[in-house]
Structures are given as structure tokens and as C-alpha cells.
């Protein structure tokens, strides 16, 4: 166990979801996801996760090197950097000089209104998923900005970049009318952590009504008629365009403001569906479009860890 950074734990039942997922992770995952799995489920330490994450860090304070598998190449990108912040948040290391450097990078790539684009310019021909919008002058994007601002607020980070970025998120969320599931999920990531709780609660209530009115959540996994088809949308982590979103995709934990949008039965069906998605090899499927063999292999362990964490957060036994 010393080599995994994990401490000895009681044996996992041989046919439990966790046991099967562990085999899948050791077989297929990048070092970062192996270390994350050990941290979350095998009593592993945070230091090895941080060390593995350092391989993706650049001198400008951002992250690159295909940390998000659909963006290849070494250059720093907002989505890579948001992914890195999510890892640091998961292991309780989202603070200090490291995050100060990240915020300087975020400042350097922000748009005129202080927000982040999903993908910055300067891809220089590096391989990129067809669904990734690469444009010369990328616009501000709630999908990229909302989760990052939420993570920084949740960790009580203070940096000048947050002021205008937070204002952008408030305005973007308040102006949502006709939306798509990924945009709603990004709004939830912001609202779950922003300090002004009454304002966040009021906006979350409105978004919940919007989600139900526009049928943005598949409320019964067994009925295809309930599965919404999302409009074409820019790239972000999560299910691909056209794939249904379920209640657990919006409310990753019971503490999320989005949990109130769904009944007990609706959430139970959603979690049943998520649990049943575990494949024969022990991993969960990815809902990203498969455009290259390597990216699918890299993405599935990430989806597997996220599925296990979601199930466990909602009180489901995983092993």
C-alpha cells in the first residue's frame, strides 16, 4: 500500500461496485486518477495527488498537457485550470501560493468583462475534439467561469480576479431564460458556493422551475420520452451535447441547492440509474463524443471516480 500513498483498510467485498471500480482504475487510469482514487476510497494521502497534478502545471500558473483529455497539447487553458482547481478542492489544498499563481493566470486570460472563455486562443493546431469551439476571439463563458468562481469562494480564496468574475456570474445566471443542462450545472456550481446565500437561494429556485419547465432533466431513466435533447452547445466537462442529464448531474451532493428541484423518488431513480451504469469491466461509461481512442481511455476513470463519489455522497453503499 505504501506505493499507492494509501493506508491499509479492511478488504473491500469482492463483487462490490468499489472493488470492481478499483480493478478498472489500476488497469486503465492515468497516475493522477490512480492517486485520486486512492485518496477518496483507500485512505490515500493528499501529497501524491498534488505531485501527480504538478505534471500538468505550466510556468504561467495555468495547467495544460491534456489534463482535460479533449484538449491536447501543452498550453495552459481555462478548462484545464478549472479541472486542476477541482482536484485541489477535492483534496483540501485549494489555497496558498499555488492558487495565487492560478489566479494570476486567470487574470491574464480573462475577457474584457473579467470572465473566462471556455477555450483560449493560441491552440496552434494541437489536436482538439471536434466539439471544442476554437475561435480567434473567444467570448466570456458561464460554463468555464461559474465552476471556477464557485470553487474559489468555497475555499475562501481572496483575489482581485474574483470581483469582476463574480459579477459576471451573477449577471449571467440572472439572465438565463432558455438554457441547456451544462449551463445550468455551471450555474449550480457557482450558486452552491457564492457567499450571498439569500440571493443564491432565490436564483436557484428560479432555475429549478426553468429546468422542469424546459424538461432539462430526465426524471425517469426508464422512459425515453423524458430524456431531453440538449441543443448544440459549447464544450465543457459532463455529458455530451444531445445526451440526457439526470437529477444527480445537477445535485452532486444532498447539500446542493439543486437537490430541492427533485422529489425523493426522482432522485432515487436517478441514483439507481447511475449505479446501474457500471460496466462489466468495473468502470463507468463516458458520455463525451469519442473522437480518439486515447481520450476515451483517459476519460472513463474520471467518470468512474465521479460516479462513486456522487453515489457515496447521496448515501448509497459502494463497498
Radius of gyration: 19 Å
User: In total, how many beta strands?
Assistant: 0
Give the overall pLDDT as a whole number.
Answer: 90
Structural class: mainly alpha
Helix count, DSSP H or I runs of 4 or more residues: 12
Beta-strand content bin: under 5%
Based on Cα principal axes, name the global outline. globular
Helix/strand order, N-terminal first: HHHHHHHHHHHH
For the biggest sheet, the summary is: none
Helical fraction equals 40-55%
Terminus-to-terminus distance: 18 Å
Which regions have little confidence, pLDDT < 50, spanning 5+ residues? 224-239
Describe this structure in words.
By secondary structure, the protein is mainly alpha-helical. The protein is 48% helix and 0% strand. Residues 222-249 are annotated as: Disordered. This is Prenyltransferase.
List the keywords.
single chain, 319 residues, mainly alpha, 48% helix, Terpenoid_cyclase/PrenylTrfase
SSE topology:
Elements (H helix, E strand, L loop, with lengths): L16 H12 L2 H11 L4 H9 L23 H13 L5 H14 L32 H13 L6 H14 L6 H11 L5 H17 L33 H4 L13 H13 L16 H21 L6
Amino acid at each position: 500500500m505504501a506505493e499507492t500513498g494509501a493506508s491499509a483498510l479492511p478488504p473491500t467485498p469482492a463483487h462490490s461496485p468499489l472493488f470492481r471500480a478499483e480493478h478498472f482504475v489500476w488497469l486503465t487510469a492515468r497516475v493522477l486518477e490512480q492517486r485520486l482514487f486512492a485518496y477518496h476510497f483507500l485512505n490515500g494521502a493528499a501529497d501524491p495527488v498534488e505531485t501527480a497534478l504538478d505534471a500538468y502545471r505550466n510556468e504561467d500558473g495555468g495547467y495544460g498537457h491534456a489534463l482535460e483529455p479533449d484538449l491536447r497539447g501543452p498550453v495552459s487553458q481555462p478548462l484545464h485550470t478549472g479541472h486542476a482547481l477541482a482536484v485541489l478542492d477535492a483534496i483540501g489544498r485549494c489555497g496558498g501560493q499555488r492558487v495565487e499563481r492560478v489566479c494570476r493566470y486567470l487574470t491574464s486570460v480573462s475577457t474584457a468583462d473579467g470572465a473566462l472563455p471556455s477555450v483560449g486562443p493560441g491552440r496552434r493546431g494541437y489536436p482538439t475534439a471536434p466539439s471544442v469551439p476554437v475561435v480567434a476571439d473567444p467570448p466570456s463563458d458561464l460554463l468555464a467561469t461559474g465552476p471556477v468562481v464557485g470553487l474559489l469562494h468555497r475555499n475562501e480564496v481572496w483575489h482581485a480576479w474574483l470581483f469582476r468574475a463574480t459579477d459576471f456570474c451573477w449577471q449571467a445566471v440572472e439572465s438565463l431564460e432558455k438554457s441547456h443542462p451544462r449551463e445550468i450545472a455551471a450555474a449550480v456550481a457557482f450558486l452552491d458556493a457564492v457567499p450571498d446565500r439569500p440571493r443564491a437561494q432565490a436564483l436557484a429556485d428560479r432555475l429549478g422551475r426553468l429546468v422542469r419547465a424546459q424538461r432539462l432533466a430526465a426524471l425517469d431513466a426508464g422512459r425515453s420520452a423524458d430524456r431531453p435533447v440538449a441543443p448544440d452547445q459549447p464544450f465543457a466537462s459532463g455529458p455530451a451535447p444531445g445526451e440526457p442529464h439526470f437529477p444527480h448531474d445537477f445535485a452532486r451532493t444532498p447539500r446542493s441547492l439543486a437537490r430541492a428541484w427533485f422529489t425523493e423518488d426522482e432522485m432515487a431513480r436517478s441514483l439507481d440509474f447511475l449505479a446501474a451504469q457500471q460496466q462489466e469491466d468495473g468502470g463507468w461509461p463516458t458520455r463525451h463524443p469519442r473522437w480518439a481512442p486515447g481520450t476515451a481511455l483517459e476519460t472513463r476513470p474520471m467518470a468512474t471516480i465521479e460516479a462513486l463519489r456522487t453515489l457515496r455522497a447521496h448515501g448509497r453503499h459502494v463497498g
